[in-house]
Design brief:
seven-stranded antiparallel beta sheet; alpha+beta; four-stranded mixed beta sheet; single chain
């Protein structure tokens, strides 16, 4: 089926539009999505599809939120406000309970804390509030000896690092993000969506797996007390459906820093462009040595929570190693459960953002990202 593709591409990026159109033609009739990319600070791809969608539609981007959260941390490390080798207890003394006193900020950022959740789990209301998450985790014993292994801190990493930011600066991570990153660039990537922008939000739709895909999902090991269940808070008596988190107005208003962000693809790509490139007349947010630091792989191999090969930098996913090996080493970003993907590739100067409304099988970065990123990356290298 031919589907209308809206938006523009720069000269040399026509193949990206063709690839996007080819993908959309095979999707469900209700598909909505956005694709945006910058190269060396210049927007070169700005596309969208869907009957009720436009470039300004806003979507719940789940863990792509972690990219915004940890760009804040990177700026504070660059400023000297935070030091990676300091123990977390230097900033947050209460954190040291239950054998966590030796953990460094670097350990925390790289998913090595073992503090993936609570024995008793969180309520939906608690998962909307980073302060509450942090307070409860301070008293929690780690699920493995800190620093000895790594596992994805799905719902809590932003709250943990956010509490360090709050203790060090006197401001919430969301406030620092708004002041130093979102507002100066006018980014449509919000950690705390104002009521006035609610009409632009498109509620997240659940995955529609095929019978074969559903059988794979049903067969996945997820015991009630497994690390995976604890990290995703599915071990509680009435676990949230994945779409319930971003579809809650309380979550959108508070913008919890692990998975509560709301964005358009323009906002995702624009943030990463600002991180590594001059945008307009503004210099890059990050200096070259900071870019190298955040993109350096610190945790790689078997992830105890995801039960798969993963690679992490400082709060970011190591995008090339974890997902797209054709990108340059040092690429950093973060995917989201509904299928969103966003990253910066410093070697090519590429900044990429993709959103979609309906959750994609099997969760996390949607499979179409590989072909879309491949097309954008090839065009960028040909410039």
């Amino acid at each position: 089926m031919t589907r209308e593709i809206h938006g523009t591409v720069a000269a040399g990026f026509e193949a990206v539009r063709e690839e996007f159109a080819a993908f959309v033609a095979g999707e469900l009739p209700d598909y909505e999505g956005q694709l945006c990319a910058y190269v060396h600070g210049r927007r070169v791809v700005d596309l969208w599809a869907g009957d009720d969608n436009d470039a300004e539609s806003l979507y719940g981007v789940f863990s792509s939120t972690k990219g915004a959260a940890h760009l804040v941390v990177a700026l504070l490390v660059q400023d000297g406000t935070l030091e990676l080798e300091r123990r977390v207890t230097y900033y947050w003394p209460e954190f040291g309970a239950e054998g966590k006193a030796a953990l460094t900020l670097r350990d925390l950022l790289t998913h090595r804390a073992g503090l993936i959740g609570l024995d008793a789990g969180f309520s939906a209301q608690e998962l909307a509030d980073d302060r509450v998450i942090a307070e409860r985790l301070a008293d929690q014993r780690p699920f493995w000896r800190p620093g000895t292994a790594f596992g994805y801190h799905a719902f809590v990493l932003g709250a943990l690092t956010g509490e360090v930011v709050r203790r060090a600066t006197g401001h919430t991570l969301q406030e620092v993000y708004e002041e130093r990153i979102r507002a100066p660039y006018g980014l449509d990537f919000h950690l705390g969506l104002p009521e006035s922008l609610e009409p632009r939000f498109r509620s997240v739709q659940p995955m529609v797996p095929t019978p074969k895909q559903q059988a794979v999902l049903d067969a996945a090991p997820r015991g009630p007390h497994s690390l995976t269940s604890i990290a995703y808070n599915t071990h509680v008596p009435e676990p949230l459906e994945p779409v319930d988190h971003p579809n809650s107005r309380i979550v959108r208003a508070k913008g919890p820093a692990s998975a509560g962000g709301v964005a358009a693809a323009r906002g995702l790509a624009g943030m990463y462009a600002a991180a590594i490139s001059e945008v307009g007349e503004r210099p890059p947010l990050l200096k070259p040595d900071t870019v190298a630091e955040v993109g350096q792989i610190h945790s790689v191999g078997y992830d105890l929570v995801s039960r798969a090969h993963r690679a992490y930098g400082l709060g970011f996913q190591a995008t090339a190693d974890a997902w797209y090996p054709f990108l340059g080493a040092g690429a950093f970003g973060h995917s989201g459960a509904a299928g969103s993907q966003a990253f910066a590739d410093p070697r090519s100067g590429l900044a990429y953002g993709y959103t979609r409304r309906r959750c994609a099988y099997p969760g996390g970065a949607a499979p179409e990202n590989e072909r879309l990123i491949g097309a954008v990356h090839a065009a960028a290298l040909a410039l």
